[in-house]
Amino acid sequence: MRKVIIVPPNTGEVREIHPISLIAIFAGIVLLPVILYLLQPKVDESLIRREKDYYEILHKLNYLEHRLSVLERRNEALKLEANALRSHLMYYRDTTVTSVSDFEDIFERVQVNQKLLELVEKEVSKDPQKLDYLPSILPVDGWLVKGFGLIKDRFTGEYRVSQGINIAAPVGTPVRATASGWVVFRGYKKGYGKMVIIQHRHGFRTLYAHLNDIKVGLGEFVKRGKIIGTVGTTGTTEGPQLHYEIRLYGIPQNPLNYMIEEIKTL
């Protein structure tokens, strides 16, 4: 087999290179960039899509918050409704997104909020009494003894998440509906004792537990301020008190964020 003779100009030394070796060197020069490219980690296309979805959601949230600010400036009464919606939007800002399906779920809920916001603007502009469906008054005259969020359980000593607040008051103290709505549950539930659940408009639902007695019927429509029961000690409780919860589309809300009246603390 023939050989290739190479004479380097700097040394003048004659070198013989086998053609196969020459081909291998040439192939290495040509293929090296290709190999390096293939070895580089490819950008995950799903991550790109996820980032795009994230910024689209962020844009929608910013738009909704702008609309809420407009509501607050227009009318003092609307400010309360705007705060309620903003509390809902903050949940999505704090939500950890781990998959595309999470984005789809949040997208859907953001769209629901947008429609809800438009409905609020339209209805309240026509009839301010629509705000009667927003749970914004104190359910009972008493003292706040347990807040919303992470608390230490006095019975077990363990930390747990409280989905509502507890207000202490003497047994028999009237408990009032914090907004107009329909009674969707009245009865006894383990831990909660005697309780009432009211469904309001715009996705709100309120719960009143540890009642001594219940004064409303299932399916009954109650107006804001109506007495629905009295404070008691039923269920798991440390004394006579009302356990009160607000949920917006099933998501627990801090009731204190909705109250237009100041609650007493011990």
Tell me what you see in this structure.
The mean pLDDT is 73. The longest helix is centred in the N-terminal third of the chain and has 30 residues, at 45-74. The chain has four helices and 15 strands. With 266 residues, the chain is of the alpha+beta class. A hairpin with a 6-residue loop joins strand 4 and strand 5. It has three domains: 4-39, no CATH class; 45-126; 143-265, Glucose Permease (Domain IIA) (Distorted Sandwich). Keywords: Coiled coil, Membrane, Signal, Transmembrane, Transmembrane helix. Residues 161-255 form the M23ase beta-sheet core domain. The chain crosses the membrane at residues 20-39.
Which class of the largest domain in CATH terms? Mainly Beta
Give me the strand/helix succession.
EEHHHHEEEEEEEEEEEEE
Write the CATH architecture name of the largest domain.
Answer: Distorted Sandwich
CATH topology of the largest domain: Glucose Permease (Domain IIA)
Provide the low-confidence segments as ranges.
Answer: none
**What is the number of helical segments per DSSP (H or I, 4+ residues)?**
4
Kindly report how far apart the N and C termini lie: 102 Å
CATH superfamily of the largest domain: Glucose Permease (Domain IIA)
Fraction of helical residues: 25-40%
SS content category: alpha+beta
- Bin the strand percentage: 25-35%
For the secondary structure, the number of strands is 15
For the biggest sheet, the summary is: 11 strands, mixed
Count of the separate structural domains? 3
- Mean pLDDT, nearest integer? 73
Pfam family, one: Peptidase_M23
InterPro entries: Cell_wall_metabolism_enzyme, Dup_hybrid_motif, M23ase_b-sheet_dom
Protein name: M23ase beta-sheet core domain-containing protein
GO molecular function: metalloendopeptidase activity
